[in-house]
Q: What sequence folds into this?
């Protein structure tokens, strides 16, 4: 309860002659990893099977270790659980445990076999919001390079499994050739690197201001020591959805800009804002073109007259607005931009950075092509693995979680993120239902290092929680809502990884 | 300091504009915080005189009541599947997340809006307008007006003035493309300027006659008074390149006319500055235009320009030492410039020579001419009555033959003092009739 008269503000006064101080922004210590960068002249002719094979070989040792610790020496009804190497080696009636890849078949799930059977004709993309249906018609099976076995059992109903995750199951094969699962194990959180594993903490470089040191092929900008002591913040926003047609949240975007620039608010708050050292834009910066019925009618008529691509139907306004937004921000704050589902980048995972040609004004802040130093304006991949203020951060534009949510009845996005961490796979449903590049040599979606902070953009609501691993790993999970819907941004403290939110409300809105 | 009052009065009261603090700060080049105070002071002052004459919006930042309760991230609900039932039990902490709210509130709603706040960290006037804000879009437009005032060139200094949080680490990439273009433009500019000046004395006398052939002579004459007029020795040095340039320009034309200017060419040809032909030839082409449109000659000559000219001369000399191959390439480049004059001069030659009525040469190379020509052909057919009818009519016939018309061949020979490169220059134009002459020579 605040009354206007009670509010004291230095700004509700006559202008003073003294020139106010201009705060200096906290430097950002940032080193993006090239985990998800694809080579420029990549081929798309390979088979997808390699991804599953690579994933299995990478994660299987970990999950078997967990399973062995739990189940070795365990006996059920005088029978000792035995480890079986391959799915095909499971013998009927024998108690055993085996590791493999989960495959979930659901009636509503698009099946790659449909495409194949239709022969040179690709099935229409699915429009269902959920693959999940209540009838319990989905079947879960476990497979590896040798074969596949259907899993049944009550245990499964209590656990969420999606295609592509690697698990170990214990049980017996019944007369129908199905595997009755008694227990199930996940690889659990991957080993977590120490803080400052790749970059050096700023205070070790006393007196070497702004020095660049080379470490493991990563150029890391060193920052002066005093700045690091004060807890900085990172601002994370997603779903800015600059639009050429919908200006309902244009004012909020303006306010966001002024907020991040530190022009809004009073001197004290401005000093606080100067601790925001970096802005991460996690997907969907440019709005989907939602045409009204009238407009689409008009374009239909036009289409008859004009053959081919009608350049008049292209609206450059959204990218102009976004470019202007960035161009105003960048002199003051470095920006990391992840593409999202709606952005002008390739649609398959991992999405590569939005081309800087999209940003005629702000691209002068981006990295010189071919240089190893990250740009001040870093148009990064989605997902992106980075080290920020020493913390390992994994960020995505949200497609991996969105796709996984289709398999599951609930909408517990944080739970899904946790599951991904425990499966050690940041995009388990790729390449089955989440389109992905057909990797040949490595599956980058395998989390070889557990992040400290896992951020997923473009989610329906805000949420955060901390999960812990068996080795003392701590992961901060954050779902970042779309700014266009929620009008809020997330601030993360760079020392404690504590989270706070800022809501922005213009006149008339809530 | 008080000029903000006049500015605001003008814009808000007279021109019905909505002025935000950012716009005011850009317009008056003051710190944003000062601008906020100005808006407040003006608002207070005006409404003190006449209540309701100015309407403000406020920007409020702080903690709202009840936000703590609602800020709880959705805890696991009843219908939620416990995804990790097999996991070791852990107390998963759902954090209570502090929420700050930044609201833009019109002044008439301010009291109510503040009621909802538990703590206000910051409040200030966001904008002033003559009317209460009804549509946010209008305000948004007003906010965007800032862009029209901001100048991109001096961003860093502006940040300091306006109070934007500065960042010492900001890196901009040197735009390589832009940079090199500018760098290229810089030396090019004096180059372009210099020849223009030189060409003028030559062009003026020649203008009326439009006899390009005479140009070399004229240019030779021109430099002689030139050194005497400006006193410096640099000027006289410059005169030489002038002559060369003029010579090369005229040469193209003169060369077509035959060996008349042979002697002259002999001295001017080797001096042809291969490097800057592109900047020279346009002059020789539209000299008349130049003299007509740009009558004022090189009157003001700064020392800088002179030294540039000297540099240029050295550059030219270096270029001259380069081998002929390079020159050939350069020559080829200028050919488009020549186009307007050459056709008139050379085309008549083959046509006047005895030839078939019409002939279109589509390709000639490797010593053969290919194309189509019009010939009279006899066509014989049966008409409706079964009679054989023979009709002679014109028809196009494609041909391919050895270099047919020899007469013009000696012509280029007469210009043989010019190196073969000269001949080649016509090649890319697709002027078959001329090209064919030179092909034999090479």
A:
């Amino acid at each position: 309860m605040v009354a206007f008269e009670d509010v004291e503000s230095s700004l509700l006064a006559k202008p003073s002659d003294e020139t106010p101080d201009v705060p200096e922004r906290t430097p950002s210590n940032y080193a993006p990893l090239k985990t998800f960068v694809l080579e420029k002249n990549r081929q798309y002719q390979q088979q997808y099977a390699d991804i599953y094979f690579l994933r299995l070989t990478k994660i299987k040792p970990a999950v078997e270790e967990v399973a062995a610790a739990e189940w070795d020496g365990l006996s059920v009804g005088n029978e000792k659980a035995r480890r079986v190497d391959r799915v095909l080696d499971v013998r009927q009636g024998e108690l055993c445990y085996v590791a493999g890849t989960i495959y979930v078949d659901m009636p509503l799930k698009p099946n790659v076999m449909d495409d194949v059977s239709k022969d040179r004709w690709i099935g229409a993309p699915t429009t269902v919001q959920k693959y999940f249906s209540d009838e319990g018609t989905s079947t879960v099976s476990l497979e590896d390079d040798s074969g596949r076995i259907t899993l049944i059992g009550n245990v499964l109903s209590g656990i969420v499994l999606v295609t592509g995750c690697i698990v170990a199951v214990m049980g017996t094969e019944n007369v129908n050739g199905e595997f009755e699962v008694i227990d199930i194990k996940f690889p659990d959180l991957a080993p977590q690197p120490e803080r400052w594993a790749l970059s050096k903490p700023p205070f070790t470089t006393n007196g070497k201001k702004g020095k660049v040191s080379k470490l493991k092929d990563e150029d890391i900008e060193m920052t002066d020591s005093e700045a690091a002591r004060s807890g900085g913040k990172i601002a994370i926003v997603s779903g800015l959805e600059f639009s050429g047609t919908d200006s309902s949240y244009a004012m909020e975007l303006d306010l966001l800009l002024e907020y991040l620039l530190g022009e809004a608010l009073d001197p004290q708050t401005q000093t606080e804002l100067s601790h925001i050292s970096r802005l991460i834009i996690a997907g969907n910066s440019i709005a989907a073109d939602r045409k009204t019925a009238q407009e689409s009618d008009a374009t239909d008529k036009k289409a008859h007259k004009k053959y081919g691509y009608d350049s008049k139907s292209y609206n450059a306004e959204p990218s102009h607005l976004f470019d202007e937004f960035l161009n105003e921000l960048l002199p003051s704050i470095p920006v990391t931009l992840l593409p999202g589902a709606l952005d002008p980048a390739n649609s398959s995972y991992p999405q590569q950075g939005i081309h800087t040609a999209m940003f005629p004004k702000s691209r002068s802040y981006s990295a010189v092509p071919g240089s190893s130093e990250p740009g001040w304006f870093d148009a990064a991949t989605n997902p992106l693995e980075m080290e920020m203020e020493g913390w390992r951060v994994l960020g995505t534009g949200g497609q991996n979680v969105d796709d996984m949510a289709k398999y599951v009845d609930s909408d517990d996005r944080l739970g899904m993120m946790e599951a991904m961490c425990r499966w050690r796979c940041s995009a388990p449903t790729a390449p089955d239902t989440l389109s992905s590049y057909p990797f040949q040599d490595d599956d980058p979606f395998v989390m070889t290092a557990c992040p400290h902070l896992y951020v997923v953009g473009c989610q329906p609501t805000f949420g955060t929680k901390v999960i812990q691993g068996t080795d003392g790993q701590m992961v901060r999970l954050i779902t970042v809502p779309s700014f266009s819907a929620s009008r809020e941004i997330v601030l993360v403290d760079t020392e404690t990884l504590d989270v706070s939110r800022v809501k922005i409300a213009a006149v008339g809105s809530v | 300091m008080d000029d903000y009052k006049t500015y605001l009065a003008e814009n808000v009261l007279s021109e019905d504009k909505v002025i935000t603090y950012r716009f005011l700060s850009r317009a008056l080049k003051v710190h944003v915080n000062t601008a906020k105070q100005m808006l407040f002071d003006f608002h207070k002052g005006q409404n003190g005189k006449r209540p309701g004459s100015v309407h403000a919006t406020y920007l409020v930042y702080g903690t709202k009541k009840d936000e703590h309760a609602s800020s709880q991230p959705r805890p696991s609900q009843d219908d939620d599947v416990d995804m990790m039932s097999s996991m070791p039990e852990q107390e998963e902490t759902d954090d209570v997340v502090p929420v700050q709210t930044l609201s833009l509130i019109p002044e008439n709603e301010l009291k109510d809006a503040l009621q909802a706040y538990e703590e206000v960290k910051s409040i200030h006037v966001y904008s002033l307008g003559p009317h209460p804000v009804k549509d946010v879009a209008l305000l948004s437009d007003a906010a965007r007006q800032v862009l029209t005032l901001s100048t991109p060139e001096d961003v860093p200094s502006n940040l300091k003035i306006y109070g934007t949080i500065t960042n010492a680490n900001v890196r901009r990439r040197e735009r390589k493309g832009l940079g090199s273009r500018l760098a290229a433009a810089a030396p090019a500019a004096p180059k372009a300027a210099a020849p223009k000046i030189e060409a003028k004395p030559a062009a003026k006398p020649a203008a009326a006659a439009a006899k390009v052939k005479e140009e070399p002579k004229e240019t030779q004459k021109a430099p002689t008074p030139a050194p005497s007029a400006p006193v410096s020795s640099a000027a006289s040095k410059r005169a030489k390149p002038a002559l060369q340039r003029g010579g090369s320009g005229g040469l193209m034309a003169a060369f077509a006319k035959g060996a008349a200017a042979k002697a002259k060419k002999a001295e001017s040809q080797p001096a042809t500055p291969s490097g800057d032909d592109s900047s020279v030839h346009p002059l020789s082409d539209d000299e008349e235009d130049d003299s007509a449109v740009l009558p004022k000659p090189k009157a003001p000559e700064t020392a800088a320009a002179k030294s540039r000219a000297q540099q240029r001369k050295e550059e030219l000399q270096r270029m001259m030492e380069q081998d002929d191959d390079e020159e050939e390439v350069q020559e080829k480049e200028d050919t488009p410039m020549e186009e307007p004059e050459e056709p008139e001069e050379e085309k008549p030659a083959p046509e006047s020579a005895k030839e078939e009525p019409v002939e279109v040469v589509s390709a000639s190379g490797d010593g053969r001419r290919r194309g189509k020509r019009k010939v009279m052909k006899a066509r014989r057919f049966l008409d409706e009555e079964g009679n054989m009818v023979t009709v002679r009519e014109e028809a196009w016939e494609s041909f391919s033959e050895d270099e047919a018309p020899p007469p013009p061949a000696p012509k280029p020979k007469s210009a043989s003092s010019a190196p073969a490169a000269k001949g080649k220059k016509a090649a890319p134009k697709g002027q078959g009739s001329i090209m064919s002459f030179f092909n034999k020579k090479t």
Notes: Chain B has three domains: 3-70+98-162, 184-344, 346-441. Chain B has a mean pLDDT of 62.
